[in-house]
TrEMBL record:
Keyword terms, alphabetized: Ubl conjugation pathway
Pfam annotation, one family: NPH3
Organism: Raphanus sativus
Protein name: BTB/POZ domain-containing protein At3g22104-like
BTB domain mapped to chain residues: 5-70
Domain NPH3: from-to ranges: 189-437
Length: 497
Protein backbone atom coordinates (compact mmCIF):
# COMPACT_ATOMS: atom_id res chain seq x y z
CA UNK A 1 0.00 0.00 0.00
CA UNK A 2 1.36 3.42 -0.89
CA UNK A 3 1.98 5.77 2.00
CA UNK A 4 1.92 9.14 0.18
CA UNK A 5 -1.15 11.15 1.17
CA UNK A 6 -1.41 13.99 -1.30
CA UNK A 7 -5.18 14.47 -1.20
CA UNK A 8 -7.45 15.76 1.56
CA UNK A 9 -11.16 14.97 1.40
CA UNK A 10 -13.53 16.90 3.70
CA UNK A 11 -16.68 14.87 4.30
CA UNK A 12 -19.68 17.08 5.20
CA UNK A 13 -17.48 19.14 7.54
CA UNK A 14 -17.44 16.29 10.05
CA UNK A 15 -14.16 14.59 9.15
CA UNK A 16 -11.15 15.08 6.88
CA UNK A 17 -9.60 11.98 5.32
CA UNK A 18 -6.07 11.93 3.82
CA UNK A 19 -5.70 9.75 0.72
CA UNK A 20 -3.35 8.88 -2.05
CA UNK A 21 -4.67 10.59 -5.17
CA UNK A 22 -3.38 7.92 -7.54
CA UNK A 23 -5.02 5.05 -5.69
CA UNK A 24 -8.40 6.70 -5.21
CA UNK A 25 -8.57 8.08 -8.75
CA UNK A 26 -7.90 4.62 -10.19
CA UNK A 27 -11.43 3.59 -9.14
CA UNK A 28 -13.37 6.83 -8.70
CA UNK A 29 -14.62 8.42 -11.88
CA UNK A 30 -15.84 11.46 -9.97
CA UNK A 31 -12.42 12.30 -8.50
CA UNK A 32 -10.70 11.64 -11.83
CA UNK A 33 -12.93 14.31 -13.40
CA UNK A 34 -12.27 16.73 -10.53
CA UNK A 35 -8.49 16.25 -10.23
CA UNK A 36 -7.40 15.09 -13.66
CA UNK A 37 -4.71 12.48 -14.25
CA UNK A 38 -1.63 14.47 -13.18
CA UNK A 39 0.39 13.06 -10.28
CA UNK A 40 3.23 15.62 -10.14
CA UNK A 41 4.41 17.02 -6.86
CA UNK A 42 3.08 20.43 -7.82
CA UNK A 43 -0.39 19.06 -7.24
CA UNK A 44 0.28 18.28 -3.56
CA UNK A 45 -2.01 19.68 -0.88
CA UNK A 46 -5.06 19.14 -3.03
CA UNK A 47 -8.35 19.28 -1.16
CA UNK A 48 -11.84 18.15 -2.13
CA UNK A 49 -14.91 19.14 -0.12
CA UNK A 50 -18.16 17.12 -0.12
CA UNK A 51 -21.05 18.90 1.59
CA UNK A 52 -23.80 16.32 1.14
CA UNK A 53 -22.02 13.01 0.93
CA UNK A 54 -24.57 10.20 1.52
CA UNK A 55 -23.83 8.28 4.69
CA UNK A 56 -21.08 10.72 5.70
CA UNK A 57 -17.56 9.62 6.60
CA UNK A 58 -18.64 6.04 7.28
CA UNK A 59 -19.75 5.35 3.72
CA UNK A 60 -16.80 7.25 2.21
CA UNK A 61 -14.40 5.09 4.23
CA UNK A 62 -16.04 1.96 2.82
CA UNK A 63 -15.30 3.09 -0.74
CA UNK A 64 -11.79 4.16 0.24
CA UNK A 65 -11.04 0.75 1.73
CA UNK A 66 -12.31 -0.88 -1.44
CA UNK A 67 -9.90 1.22 -3.47
CA UNK A 68 -6.92 0.63 -1.14
CA UNK A 69 -7.56 -3.15 -1.10
CA UNK A 70 -7.37 -3.19 -4.88
CA UNK A 71 -11.08 -4.03 -5.21
CA UNK A 72 -10.99 -6.95 -2.76
CA UNK A 73 -13.23 -5.42 -0.07
CA UNK A 74 -16.45 -7.46 0.22
CA UNK A 75 -19.97 -6.03 -0.06
CA UNK A 76 -22.32 -7.64 2.47
CA UNK A 77 -25.98 -6.98 3.48
CA UNK A 78 -24.92 -4.88 6.49
CA UNK A 79 -23.04 -2.36 4.34
CA UNK A 80 -24.61 -2.69 0.90
CA UNK A 81 -26.86 0.38 1.17
CA UNK A 82 -24.07 2.69 2.35
CA UNK A 83 -21.68 1.18 -0.17
CA UNK A 84 -24.09 1.66 -3.05
CA UNK A 85 -24.94 5.29 -2.35
CA UNK A 86 -21.29 6.27 -1.81
CA UNK A 87 -20.10 4.34 -4.88
CA UNK A 88 -22.76 5.94 -7.05
CA UNK A 89 -21.66 9.45 -6.11
CA UNK A 90 -17.98 8.50 -6.45
CA UNK A 91 -18.68 6.61 -9.71
CA UNK A 92 -16.91 3.42 -8.60
CA UNK A 93 -18.29 0.97 -11.15
CA UNK A 94 -16.82 -2.15 -9.55
CA UNK A 95 -18.63 -1.44 -6.27
CA UNK A 96 -21.93 -0.77 -8.01
CA UNK A 97 -21.73 -4.14 -9.73
CA UNK A 98 -21.20 -5.88 -6.39
CA UNK A 99 -24.00 -4.00 -4.64
CA UNK A 100 -26.46 -4.88 -7.39
CA UNK A 101 -25.45 -8.53 -7.13
CA UNK A 102 -25.86 -8.45 -3.34
CA UNK A 103 -29.35 -6.97 -3.64
CA UNK A 104 -30.38 -9.78 -5.99
CA UNK A 105 -29.96 -12.15 -3.04
CA UNK A 106 -32.07 -10.03 -0.71
CA UNK A 107 -34.61 -12.76 0.02
CA UNK A 108 -31.93 -14.87 1.67
CA UNK A 109 -30.94 -12.11 4.09
CA UNK A 110 -31.62 -12.47 7.82
CA UNK A 111 -34.39 -10.39 9.41
CA UNK A 112 -31.85 -8.19 11.23
CA UNK A 113 -30.00 -7.48 7.96
CA UNK A 114 -33.21 -6.42 6.18
CA UNK A 115 -34.15 -4.17 9.09
CA UNK A 116 -30.67 -2.60 9.17
CA UNK A 117 -30.86 -1.94 5.44
CA UNK A 118 -34.19 -0.16 5.90
CA UNK A 119 -32.76 1.92 8.74
CA UNK A 120 -29.85 2.98 6.53
CA UNK A 121 -32.23 3.88 3.69
CA UNK A 122 -34.23 6.21 5.90
CA UNK A 123 -31.08 7.85 7.26
CA UNK A 124 -29.69 8.51 3.77
CA UNK A 125 -32.81 9.77 1.94
CA UNK A 126 -30.67 10.92 -0.95
CA UNK A 127 -32.12 9.63 -4.18
CA UNK A 128 -34.72 7.57 -5.97
CA UNK A 129 -32.29 4.65 -5.59
CA UNK A 130 -32.71 4.53 -1.83
CA UNK A 131 -36.50 4.76 -2.23
CA UNK A 132 -36.41 1.84 -4.66
CA UNK A 133 -34.21 -0.20 -2.35
CA UNK A 134 -36.37 0.64 0.66
CA UNK A 135 -39.41 -0.66 -1.22
CA UNK A 136 -37.64 -3.95 -2.00
CA UNK A 137 -36.41 -4.33 1.56
CA UNK A 138 -39.85 -3.58 2.96
CA UNK A 139 -41.45 -6.17 0.72
CA UNK A 140 -39.00 -8.78 2.00
CA UNK A 141 -39.59 -7.72 5.62
CA UNK A 142 -43.34 -8.24 5.29
CA UNK A 143 -42.80 -11.50 3.47
CA UNK A 144 -40.73 -12.77 6.40
CA UNK A 145 -43.49 -11.80 8.83
CA UNK A 146 -46.07 -13.63 6.73
CA UNK A 147 -43.87 -16.72 6.51
CA UNK A 148 -43.41 -16.64 10.27
CA UNK A 149 -47.15 -16.97 10.79
CA UNK A 150 -47.24 -20.03 8.58
CA UNK A 151 -44.60 -21.84 10.66
CA UNK A 152 -46.09 -24.91 12.29
CA UNK A 153 -46.67 -24.74 16.08
CA UNK A 154 -44.08 -27.46 16.68
CA UNK A 155 -41.44 -25.57 14.74
CA UNK A 156 -42.35 -22.32 16.38
CA UNK A 157 -42.16 -23.80 19.86
CA UNK A 158 -38.50 -24.62 19.37
CA UNK A 159 -37.74 -21.24 17.88
CA UNK A 160 -38.42 -18.98 20.84
CA UNK A 161 -34.86 -17.77 21.25
CA UNK A 162 -33.57 -14.23 21.56
CA UNK A 163 -31.21 -14.68 18.62
CA UNK A 164 -31.86 -12.17 15.80
CA UNK A 165 -31.49 -14.96 13.26
CA UNK A 166 -34.41 -16.84 14.79
CA UNK A 167 -36.61 -13.82 15.33
CA UNK A 168 -38.78 -14.56 12.31
CA UNK A 169 -39.73 -17.86 13.85
CA UNK A 170 -40.31 -16.26 17.23
CA UNK A 171 -43.15 -14.23 15.76
CA UNK A 172 -45.38 -17.27 15.39
CA UNK A 173 -44.59 -18.32 18.93
CA UNK A 174 -45.36 -14.95 20.52
CA UNK A 175 -48.48 -14.17 18.51
CA UNK A 176 -49.90 -17.45 17.28
CA UNK A 177 -53.36 -16.40 18.39
CA UNK A 178 -55.15 -13.07 18.35
CA UNK A 179 -57.39 -14.19 21.19
CA UNK A 180 -54.81 -12.98 23.70
CA UNK A 181 -55.13 -9.49 22.18
CA UNK A 182 -58.88 -9.48 22.61
CA UNK A 183 -58.53 -10.59 26.22
CA UNK A 184 -56.26 -7.63 26.97
CA UNK A 185 -53.05 -9.64 27.32
CA UNK A 186 -49.93 -7.51 27.78
CA UNK A 187 -47.86 -9.91 25.71
CA UNK A 188 -46.89 -8.42 22.38
CA UNK A 189 -45.25 -9.88 19.27
CA UNK A 190 -41.45 -9.49 19.32
CA UNK A 191 -41.37 -7.44 16.12
CA UNK A 192 -43.33 -4.54 17.66
CA UNK A 193 -40.17 -3.33 19.42
CA UNK A 194 -37.80 -4.12 16.58
CA UNK A 195 -39.57 -1.98 13.96
CA UNK A 196 -39.65 1.04 16.27
CA UNK A 197 -36.43 2.09 14.53
CA UNK A 198 -38.42 2.86 11.38
CA UNK A 199 -39.69 6.34 10.55
CA UNK A 200 -43.44 7.04 10.27
CA UNK A 201 -43.09 7.10 6.49
CA UNK A 202 -41.56 3.63 6.33
CA UNK A 203 -44.04 2.32 8.90
CA UNK A 204 -46.87 3.58 6.68
CA UNK A 205 -45.39 1.59 3.76
CA UNK A 206 -44.96 -1.46 6.00
CA UNK A 207 -48.61 -1.35 7.08
CA UNK A 208 -49.93 -0.90 3.55
CA UNK A 209 -48.08 -4.04 2.49
CA UNK A 210 -49.36 -5.92 5.53
CA UNK A 211 -52.94 -4.92 4.73
CA UNK A 212 -52.48 -5.90 1.07
CA UNK A 213 -51.32 -9.34 2.21
CA UNK A 214 -54.45 -9.74 4.40
CA UNK A 215 -52.51 -9.46 7.63
CA UNK A 216 -54.53 -9.80 10.83
CA UNK A 217 -56.25 -6.42 11.38
CA UNK A 218 -56.23 -6.79 15.14
CA UNK A 219 -52.44 -7.20 15.16
CA UNK A 220 -52.01 -4.15 12.93
CA UNK A 221 -54.28 -2.09 15.18
CA UNK A 222 -52.34 -3.09 18.29
CA UNK A 223 -49.04 -2.30 16.63
CA UNK A 224 -50.25 1.15 15.55
CA UNK A 225 -51.18 2.18 19.08
CA UNK A 226 -47.96 0.63 20.42
CA UNK A 227 -45.85 2.55 17.88
CA UNK A 228 -47.71 5.81 18.51
CA UNK A 229 -47.29 5.60 22.29
CA UNK A 230 -43.63 4.59 22.08
CA UNK A 231 -42.59 7.28 19.60
CA UNK A 232 -44.91 10.25 20.15
CA UNK A 233 -43.58 11.89 23.32
CA UNK A 234 -39.94 12.11 22.23
CA UNK A 235 -40.65 13.02 18.58
CA UNK A 236 -40.30 16.58 17.18
CA UNK A 237 -43.56 18.35 16.32
CA UNK A 238 -43.46 17.58 12.58
CA UNK A 239 -42.83 13.90 13.28
CA UNK A 240 -45.62 13.82 15.88
CA UNK A 241 -48.01 15.00 13.21
CA UNK A 242 -46.73 12.34 10.80
CA UNK A 243 -47.11 9.59 13.43
CA UNK A 244 -50.71 10.59 14.11
CA UNK A 245 -51.59 10.85 10.43
CA UNK A 246 -50.08 7.42 9.70
CA UNK A 247 -51.95 5.91 12.65
CA UNK A 248 -55.32 7.43 11.71
CA UNK A 249 -55.01 6.75 7.97
CA UNK A 250 -54.25 3.08 8.63
CA UNK A 251 -56.91 2.58 11.30
CA UNK A 252 -59.47 4.04 8.91
CA UNK A 253 -59.07 1.13 6.45
CA UNK A 254 -59.10 -1.60 9.12
CA UNK A 255 -62.09 -3.60 10.29
CA UNK A 256 -63.84 -1.35 12.85
CA UNK A 257 -64.22 -4.25 15.28
CA UNK A 258 -60.41 -4.39 15.53
CA UNK A 259 -60.04 -0.73 16.53
CA UNK A 260 -60.55 0.01 20.26
CA UNK A 261 -63.16 2.76 20.39
CA UNK A 262 -61.84 4.39 23.58
CA UNK A 263 -58.38 4.65 22.03
CA UNK A 264 -59.81 6.80 19.25
CA UNK A 265 -60.60 9.52 21.80
CA UNK A 266 -56.99 9.39 23.01
CA UNK A 267 -55.91 9.97 19.42
CA UNK A 268 -58.45 12.79 19.14
CA UNK A 269 -56.96 14.69 22.08
CA UNK A 270 -53.50 14.43 20.54
CA UNK A 271 -54.73 15.33 17.06
CA UNK A 272 -56.52 18.47 18.26
CA UNK A 273 -53.21 19.78 19.57
CA UNK A 274 -51.06 18.74 16.61
CA UNK A 275 -52.65 20.57 13.66
CA UNK A 276 -52.90 17.43 11.54
CA UNK A 277 -54.17 17.41 7.97
CA UNK A 278 -57.87 18.26 7.76
CA UNK A 279 -58.74 15.21 5.65
CA UNK A 280 -57.07 12.95 8.24
CA UNK A 281 -58.97 14.66 11.05
CA UNK A 282 -62.20 14.07 9.11
CA UNK A 283 -61.41 10.34 9.01
CA UNK A 284 -60.90 10.26 12.78
CA UNK A 285 -64.15 12.14 13.39
CA UNK A 286 -65.97 9.78 11.05
CA UNK A 287 -64.64 6.69 12.85
CA UNK A 288 -65.75 8.12 16.19
CA UNK A 289 -69.09 9.39 14.91
CA UNK A 290 -70.13 6.17 13.23
CA UNK A 291 -69.86 4.38 16.59
CA UNK A 292 -71.23 7.22 18.71
CA UNK A 293 -73.55 4.86 20.58
CA UNK A 294 -70.43 3.45 22.30
CA UNK A 295 -69.30 6.83 23.61
CA UNK A 296 -69.72 8.22 27.11
CA UNK A 297 -70.47 11.76 28.22
CA UNK A 298 -66.87 12.22 29.37
CA UNK A 299 -65.70 11.31 25.87
CA UNK A 300 -67.74 14.15 24.39
CA UNK A 301 -66.77 16.86 26.88
CA UNK A 302 -63.83 18.02 24.77
CA UNK A 303 -62.62 21.54 25.62
CA UNK A 304 -63.16 24.08 22.86
CA UNK A 305 -60.22 25.33 20.76
CA UNK A 306 -58.10 28.02 22.40
CA UNK A 307 -59.52 30.88 20.33
CA UNK A 308 -63.12 30.02 21.23
CA UNK A 309 -64.89 31.62 24.17
CA UNK A 310 -67.30 28.77 24.96
CA UNK A 311 -66.29 25.91 27.23
CA UNK A 312 -66.83 22.81 25.09
CA UNK A 313 -66.19 21.91 21.47
CA UNK A 314 -69.85 21.79 20.40
CA UNK A 315 -69.10 21.75 16.66
CA UNK A 316 -67.15 18.52 17.14
CA UNK A 317 -70.14 16.79 18.73
CA UNK A 318 -72.39 18.07 15.95
CA UNK A 319 -70.04 16.48 13.40
CA UNK A 320 -69.96 13.22 15.36
CA UNK A 321 -73.76 13.06 15.31
CA UNK A 322 -73.88 13.89 11.60
CA UNK A 323 -71.54 10.97 10.90
CA UNK A 324 -73.66 8.69 13.09
CA UNK A 325 -76.94 9.53 11.37
CA UNK A 326 -75.38 9.36 7.89
CA UNK A 327 -75.79 5.57 8.09
CA UNK A 328 -78.83 3.47 8.90
CA UNK A 329 -78.83 2.58 12.60
CA UNK A 330 -80.86 0.25 14.80
CA UNK A 331 -83.48 1.78 17.07
CA UNK A 332 -81.55 0.88 20.20
CA UNK A 333 -78.44 2.64 18.87
CA UNK A 334 -80.41 5.79 18.04
CA UNK A 335 -81.97 5.86 21.53
CA UNK A 336 -78.54 5.52 23.14
CA UNK A 337 -77.21 8.45 21.12
CA UNK A 338 -80.35 10.49 21.88
CA UNK A 339 -79.83 9.95 25.60
CA UNK A 340 -76.13 10.77 25.29
CA UNK A 341 -76.77 13.98 23.37
CA UNK A 342 -79.42 15.07 25.90
CA UNK A 343 -76.87 14.57 28.68
CA UNK A 344 -74.38 16.64 26.71
CA UNK A 345 -76.96 19.40 26.16
CA UNK A 346 -77.56 19.58 29.90
CA UNK A 347 -73.80 19.97 30.50
CA UNK A 348 -73.27 22.79 28.00
CA UNK A 349 -76.54 24.66 28.67
CA UNK A 350 -75.24 26.76 31.61
CA UNK A 351 -72.31 28.07 29.52
CA UNK A 352 -73.02 31.82 29.11
CA UNK A 353 -70.75 32.00 26.04
CA UNK A 354 -72.59 29.30 24.07
CA UNK A 355 -74.46 30.87 21.17
CA UNK A 356 -78.21 30.28 20.88
CA UNK A 357 -77.75 29.02 17.31
CA UNK A 358 -75.34 26.28 18.50
CA UNK A 359 -77.63 25.34 21.35
CA UNK A 360 -80.58 25.13 18.95
CA UNK A 361 -78.50 22.91 16.64
CA UNK A 362 -77.95 20.52 19.54
CA UNK A 363 -81.65 20.52 20.44
CA UNK A 364 -82.71 19.67 16.88
CA UNK A 365 -79.88 17.19 16.32
CA UNK A 366 -81.86 14.11 17.35
CA UNK A 367 -84.97 12.99 15.43
CA UNK A 368 -88.03 13.62 17.60
CA UNK A 369 -89.07 9.98 17.29
CA UNK A 370 -85.88 8.95 19.13
CA UNK A 371 -86.84 10.90 22.24
CA UNK A 372 -89.46 9.20 24.39
CA UNK A 373 -89.27 12.05 26.88
CA UNK A 374 -88.48 15.76 26.66
CA UNK A 375 -87.72 16.09 30.37
CA UNK A 376 -83.97 16.53 29.86
CA UNK A 377 -84.20 19.11 27.09
CA UNK A 378 -86.83 21.10 29.00
CA UNK A 379 -84.46 21.33 31.97
CA UNK A 380 -81.57 22.20 29.64
CA UNK A 381 -83.57 24.98 27.96
CA UNK A 382 -84.59 26.33 31.34
CA UNK A 383 -80.92 26.46 32.40
CA UNK A 384 -79.89 28.04 29.11
CA UNK A 385 -82.50 30.81 29.45
CA UNK A 386 -81.31 31.42 32.99
CA UNK A 387 -77.69 31.83 31.79
CA UNK A 388 -78.65 33.96 28.76
CA UNK A 389 -80.86 36.70 30.11
CA UNK A 390 -80.04 38.98 27.18
CA UNK A 391 -81.66 36.83 24.46
CA UNK A 392 -84.38 38.31 22.29
CA UNK A 393 -87.90 36.91 22.51
CA UNK A 394 -87.46 35.48 19.02
CA UNK A 395 -84.33 33.55 20.05
CA UNK A 396 -86.03 32.28 23.20
CA UNK A 397 -89.16 31.23 21.32
CA UNK A 398 -87.16 29.19 18.80
CA UNK A 399 -85.68 27.22 21.68
CA UNK A 400 -89.02 26.70 23.45
CA UNK A 401 -90.67 25.40 20.29
CA UNK A 402 -88.38 22.36 20.30
CA UNK A 403 -90.23 21.02 23.35
CA UNK A 404 -93.09 18.60 22.82
CA UNK A 405 -95.42 19.17 25.77
CA UNK A 406 -96.98 15.73 25.28
CA UNK A 407 -93.58 14.19 26.16
CA UNK A 408 -93.30 15.99 29.48
CA UNK A 409 -94.28 14.47 32.81
CA UNK A 410 -97.16 15.91 34.81
CA UNK A 411 -94.68 17.55 37.20
CA UNK A 412 -92.80 19.22 34.35
CA UNK A 413 -95.99 20.38 32.67
CA UNK A 414 -97.04 21.91 35.98
CA UNK A 415 -93.67 23.63 36.19
CA UNK A 416 -94.05 24.98 32.66
CA UNK A 417 -97.39 26.51 33.56
CA UNK A 418 -95.71 28.41 36.39
CA UNK A 419 -92.44 29.16 34.61
CA UNK A 420 -92.48 32.93 34.16
CA UNK A 421 -89.65 32.81 31.60
CA UNK A 422 -91.73 30.64 29.27
CA UNK A 423 -95.02 32.47 29.78
CA UNK A 424 -93.57 35.94 29.18
CA UNK A 425 -91.95 34.82 25.93
CA UNK A 426 -95.15 33.25 24.57
CA UNK A 427 -97.35 36.23 25.51
CA UNK A 428 -94.92 38.71 23.97
CA UNK A 429 -94.69 36.60 20.84
CA UNK A 430 -98.49 36.47 20.43
CA UNK A 431 -98.78 40.26 20.77
CA UNK A 432 -96.00 40.73 18.26
CA UNK A 433 -97.78 38.54 15.72
CA UNK A 434 -101.05 40.45 16.14
CA UNK A 435 -99.27 43.79 15.64
CA UNK A 436 -97.56 42.40 12.55
CA UNK A 437 -100.91 41.31 11.08
CA UNK A 438 -102.35 44.84 11.57
CA UNK A 439 -99.31 46.40 9.91
CA UNK A 440 -99.51 43.99 6.98
CA UNK A 441 -103.23 44.70 6.49
CA UNK A 442 -102.56 48.43 6.55
CA UNK A 443 -99.84 48.15 3.91
CA UNK A 444 -102.03 45.88 1.81
CA UNK A 445 -104.93 48.39 1.63
CA UNK A 446 -102.66 51.26 0.61
CA UNK A 447 -100.44 49.43 -1.86
CA UNK A 448 -100.98 49.24 -5.61
CA UNK A 449 -98.04 47.16 -6.75
CA UNK A 450 -99.07 43.58 -7.61
CA UNK A 451 -95.73 42.02 -6.61
CA UNK A 452 -95.85 43.79 -3.28
CA UNK A 453 -99.34 42.43 -2.69
CA UNK A 454 -98.15 38.89 -3.39
CA UNK A 455 -95.27 39.25 -0.93
CA UNK A 456 -97.59 40.69 1.71
CA UNK A 457 -100.06 37.85 1.27
CA UNK A 458 -97.27 35.36 1.79
CA UNK A 459 -96.13 37.14 4.95
CA UNK A 460 -99.70 37.32 6.24
CA UNK A 461 -100.18 33.60 5.70
CA UNK A 462 -97.00 32.76 7.64
CA UNK A 463 -97.97 35.10 10.46
CA UNK A 464 -101.41 33.49 10.72
CA UNK A 465 -99.78 30.06 11.03
CA UNK A 466 -97.54 31.36 13.80
CA UNK A 467 -100.52 32.86 15.57
CA UNK A 468 -102.38 29.55 15.48
CA UNK A 469 -99.30 27.79 16.89
CA UNK A 470 -99.07 30.27 19.74
CA UNK A 471 -102.79 30.00 20.51
CA UNK A 472 -102.48 26.23 20.58
CA UNK A 473 -99.57 26.55 23.00
CA UNK A 474 -101.56 28.88 25.22
CA UNK A 475 -104.55 26.53 25.22
CA UNK A 476 -102.28 23.64 26.23
CA UNK A 477 -100.90 25.66 29.11
CA UNK A 478 -104.41 26.65 30.28
CA UNK A 479 -105.43 23.01 30.22
CA UNK A 480 -102.36 22.09 32.21
CA UNK A 481 -103.18 24.74 34.80
CA UNK A 482 -106.74 23.38 35.22
CA UNK A 483 -105.53 19.79 35.58
CA UNK A 484 -102.85 20.68 38.09
CA UNK A 485 -105.26 22.82 40.14
CA UNK A 486 -107.53 19.77 40.53
CA UNK A 487 -104.67 17.39 41.23
CA UNK A 488 -102.72 16.70 44.36
CA UNK A 489 -100.03 19.01 45.65
CA UNK A 490 -97.09 16.82 44.65
CA UNK A 491 -93.56 18.23 44.88
CA UNK A 492 -92.19 19.78 41.72
CA UNK A 493 -88.83 18.89 40.17
CA UNK A 494 -85.85 21.07 40.97
CA UNK A 495 -85.45 23.40 38.02
CA UNK A 496 -83.92 26.78 37.42
CA UNK A 497 -86.40 29.32 38.76
Amino acid sequence: METCSDLQVDINGEETIFLNKKIICKYSGTLRKLLGTSTSSSNSNLKVIFNDFPGGAESFELVSRFCYSNGQFTVVPSNVVLFHCAAKLMEVIEVLEQTEKCMQEIRSWAWSEVLLGLKQCQELQTSSDTDSWAAKLMDVLVEKLCLAIEVSPSSAASACSPSPDSSVLRFSCDSKSTESFKNGSSRIPWWFDEVLVLSPGLVATLLKLMIARKFDNLTISRFLFYYQKAKFCSAPSNEKREILETTIDTLYVLDRSCVPYKSLFSLLRLALGSNINKSVMNKLELMIGQQLDQATLDNLLVPSPLKSSHLYYVNLVLRFAKAFFSEAKRGSQVKKVASLVDQYIAEVAPDPCLKPSKFLSLLTLIPDIARESHEDIYRAIDMFLEAHAGLTNGEKLRLIRTISYEKLSAESRAHVSRNTKFQAIQTADLKQHKQLILRVEKVETSGDDEKLKEQIEGIQWRVMKLERACLKMQNQMEAIKKRTSRGSNRSLPKLCS
